[in-house]
Amino acid sequence: MSRPTEHTEHTERGAHGATTGEAAVELTVPDADRMRELGRRLAAFLRAGDLVLLTGELGAGKTTLTRGLGEGLKVRGAVTSPTFVIARVHPSLGSGPPLVHVDAYRLGGGLEEMEDLDLDVALPESVVVVEWGEGRVEELAEDRLHVVIRRGAGDTPEGSADPRSVTVTGVGPRWRGAGLAALAEDVAPPS
Fold this sequence. Notes:
- By secondary structure, this protein is an alpha/beta fold.
- Helices cover 18% and strands 29% of the residues.
- The N and C termini lie close together (11 Å).
- Pfam families: TsaE (PF02367).
């Protein structure tokens, strides 16, 4: 995996007009096992009330990353793509938050469909992960993580069959100074 870069050069206006910073880390993930490990590492940063948006083409690794999140959060049930059921709730096996996994791919994009899922009700006590959520659920939380996964990373680690370029961006005050660059530790394959 390439050396991560962390930057905080973007700003945007939050829901209440306040300027919020963005912190981002860019990684090269060499394979599915390491994508899952990235999910486990990312889970350590998450708590109830966190919204995670996953963006990437079909087969990019969004569900694989979410499997790792589920493992890291220690939730019940196999994390699989909820494409045909739209949303799945995975209760915590311990004292952590449940994982609500949503796949918005089949939704028409209408706000009414997203509102029917009651994500605003689930969010305060859960970690909500939305595949294909960009442009659909940002208004649910001023603070959120946006994970973009791209195939064909330019910096291909030796022995990598299908690397991905992953950008994890923390939006809002919650993610300022969160140390997202630590996500890269132990995600690279052993030498």
